[in-house]
Amino acid sequence: MNGSGPHDSLKGEKEAKQNGHEEADPGEDGNDQEVIVIQDTGFTVKICAPGIEPFSLQVSPQEMVQEIHQVLMDREDTCHRTCFSLQLDGNVLDNFAELKTIEGLQEGSLLKVVEEPYTVREARIHVRHIRDLLKSLDPSDAFNGVDCNSLSFLSVFTEGDLGGTDSGKRKKKGTEMEQIDCTPPEHILPGSKERPLCALQPQNRDWKPLQCLKVLTMSGWNPPPGNRKMHGDLMYLYVITVEDRHVSITASTRGFYLNQSTAYNFNPKPANPSFLSHSLVELLNQISPTFKKNFSALQKKRVQRHPFERIATPFQVYSWTAPQAEHAMDCVRAEDAYTSRLGYEEHIPGQTRDWNEELQTTRELPRKNLPERLLRERAIFKVHSDFTAAATRGAMAVIDGNVMAINPSEETKMQMFIWNNIFFSLGFDVRDHYKDFGGDVAAYVAPTNDLNGVRTYNAVDVEGLYTLGTVVVDYRGYRVTAQSIIPGILEREQEQSVIYGSIDFGKTVVSHPKYLELLEKTSRPLKIQKHKVLNDKNEEVELCSSVECKGIIGNDGRHYILDLLRTFPPDLNFLPVEGEEMPEECKKMGFPKQHRHKLCCLRQELVDAFVEHRYLLFMKLAALQLMQQKANKQENSATLENDASAENGTAESERPESEDGKIEDGVTGLDQVKELAETIASDDGTVDPKSREVIRNACKAVGSISDTSFDIRFNPDIFSPGTCAQSWDQPAADKNCSVAKSVAGCCFAGHGAGLCVKHREAEGRKQQWAAVLELPSAASQLELITRSAKHIFKTYLQGVELSGLSAAISHFLNCFLSSFPNPIAHLPADELVSKKKNKKRKNRNLGNADNTAWASMTPQELWKNICSEAKNYFDFSLECENADQAAEVYNLQKITLLREISLKTGVQEYNFDNRHKPTFTEEDILNIFPVVKHVNPKASDAFHFFQSGQAKVQQGFLKEGCELINEALNLFNNVYGAMHVEICACLRLLARLNYIMGDYSEALSNQQKAVLMSERVLGIEHPNTIQEYMHLALYCFANSQLSTALNLLYRARYLMLLVFGEDHPEMALLDNNIGLVLHGVMEYDLSLRFLENALAISSKYHGSKSLKVALSHHLVARVYESKAEFRSALQHEKEGYTIYKNQLGEHHEKTKESSEYLKYLTQQAVALQRTMNEIYKNGSNANIMPLKFTAPSMASVLEQLNIINGILFIPLSQKDLENLKAEVQRRQQLQESMKSGEQLEAEDKAVEEKEAEPSMPSTAIPLTQSSA
Description:
The chain is an alpha+beta fold and 1268 residues long. The protein contains 44 helices and 25 strands. Helices cover 50% and strands 9% of the residues. The protein has a 5-stranded mixed sheet with strand order 2-1-5-3-4, with helices on one face. α14 crosses α33.
């Protein structure tokens, strides 16, 4: 995986990309053609549609004819047509043909839109499309989490499209100071304790929809009787216009017309006049003037919206709050809910989809060159997102009781379901499978572990090895696993099907040579060791995975693996094993600890980091020994081994002796080791025995399984309950144990620093952190409290009947968050829970608790349970008895607790204003959504381009970096479509590069897309979205859109307050931004409030002597200077000067700048004092010198904004550039030899140096902010 193969081909593709741009010479190299295929130039065709003027359309040769259909259905003037064909010279074009395959289609060709006769299917599609057009500005689908719609509020704060035609007007308006209203809402000001929820989802002006019709619904006279079918009737519609006219409409093969039916009389004859029209819109235009006017206005507004506000997201995003909305009549929604539609009949012939076949066929697509890989990855991604949507819908139907079980006679917990070719099972331990592992608790954890396994094997992507489509859904307190179905699995018993692995956790174990061969290909990237286990007959069986990983050959002949819940090594910190000693670091922290289940595994990031650390250690040890040999100071191998084991115990931060003097030696030594290791690995007899010895010693010291090369693997079955894994081959078993223990110790010894180590380890070490920094501590406690509450909420909900759901949830939230000591639960009205009904329905309720037991919960009891859950599960003692205490002791906000618990449980509340509603009522609970975990397929080529682009940017080659990132963006779009988290990251980096290279308007356009995408794909108040808002505000300011910049910063601050509260280091950066912009528009008092708050926060988190604090003092001093309060300005600047002097020395540029500014301030203060004295002395006759009270220039404000946001521009001479290039090349060599682990550390260090020392040579240093 880490070889140079993919990298070399990538280089070829990059060069090809550049050639493609410059000369477009396809003959040079195979890779050139790969990239050029994607970059075919487009051409223009003319479209002639009935009733409108012909117009031109830019198309690409790769497009299908169908895509032109989509464009026409989206255009304002042709959107009402759905049933038409495109004809070229009288020939109908095939919808699924690529344009380049159509004969005679060229630049300037005329395509005619020809109306076609309707079928029932086409008529349904038409009505559906018209309904979508009528609802196009209505956000209710986004609030309800339907059809991959999600919310975006950017346009509310930018008043439209930033890059739009009105930007000229806006710019002019922006520079006229008096027109800008800078006052933020009261709740955004520093120190405010108000956190209203209403502002989270501000009402968009466009959402008060223009009403076109009162009702459009299916008529009760459907379907047409036989005699009317033979007249061409397809279906009947019932419409009430805004003018209150009730009409019945027939959809026939020729189009739509009015008939003479009423609500109670069926008369299908055409009315007089019947207004026969091919489109429903044309018919309604004729019978309702209001419809005509409003529909046209609605479409104008629809096409003005940014495309990113309208495109569906790949996976559904749910909102945890929503306004209370009217429930309107909707024929399509009603039809979807009450038919057995699975959502795909319109598009897929043969009704339901064979998910397994689709998922596996897409994996089998060829992947030899770039176009093939793109096609394959696009297909894989599309099928996965469709499968996730179908599985989520099915899981909700299962829990809501809308799906019949395949084993209905068994107890409810044991039932399994099949719906839409997907298999569903519940997260309970039904057949004592997990008895030794923790019962129901283990059964609840197993699906997510399994999903992680599926994710990992999919990422390794070995040809011939197949995994199941897997989605884990948490809904209403239940965990549902949805899986695609292996062909033939339902026709036979599992015992007969499994030909590899074990179905009873290691009692009977079987193996299979083909599976061993396939799994061996995954063993190196996944660090899994081939090992033997003993079955119940004491026979050795060889495996290359954990014992419960099963291999089944389906009826389709494919080799499937499933139950991948122990793909990663066990976490020995939570698996006490008798007679096994843990490393000292673990013991000090009180580990190992007993946990509720025995499926605790290490995270993949930790395993990778550990292996990387060991690799660096291996290289250092070997280099050290080679250098000692070279110097002829050989010591005996025993001493070396002792040195090795001593170094083994040290933290990763240890470095070779000196950074400057001996680094060259180090590099050559490491190169030598690399060469030597490769020679030995290739079994070359030329290596002398001493060198072999060096490698062997290094291998032994780091725990490699091979003596000749570095290769660390883990045995996933080690210390596993019920598995005899270490009774054979004792040395190998011992080595496995020691490596597993080393990883356990690595969590504490500092090797894992900077890693998101498993939450339990992190939170269990809270006391250590608290001394260093309060913030991770507060974040950990928030996470602890809400996770513990979620565990309790899960079992609490299982005992609630559907009719009491909103009452039960509101009661739980009152107990969790309300200050009121004894909230009363509102039980559903008596007639709904009559005893008779209860008896009958008890079996249907998945929980076995009494249906009203939830109502007796009290806040005291809930918080007591939360504290004991935190102690039992996370081994952490919470010191609070209610929400108010928790907020006070751990510096948390109730609104943040509410947000966290809602996101974790899927609850959606009415976005009430908390001033007027102290507690929750059942009316406040609007919905409960599923929380969905699924596989996220990656676009590998695009990701490589993106990483290469980032590396180029970090080295200072901005133009090349920009080209690579642009290429990555194209490839991402190719695979993911228009909306995806990774595209968002691409756009953000592009915007930053555009900005650094001086193209402010392009930066603004790209960043606007990044914000919209972040809102739509991650959520409107996600930490990334807050950062995107901050970046956009900077680019707006640079484009002279001052009021917009302020609005965006105020929005970011509001979201920040809601999600984190005021006490957060990122708030300092945000307040500095706001303060600077306000300073720029001469709102000095307001500016000071924000800047002084930023100063206080920076001092708290970075220490009063840090460089950030010095900069903060300087910013405050500048505002005081503008206010002519020179004494305060001097005081702050002196503080800043002292810090610079102490930290950087007297001769540093920053110290000198500060010193100059102090002199200037002193002169101004003296001049002011003189003037004042003159006035006191001579009164009105005073001869007053004019004082300079200058408003700050926009350029100086922008310069300061760049500095605080980590963007530094430094003028460079030619000599500097040459030095820089040499330095970059030297560093590259060093990085290649030290591999990526140290590369990360070096970059971190470089970032710190750059922040501390802005005079370091570089064209522009884009420092990305740490995540909010």
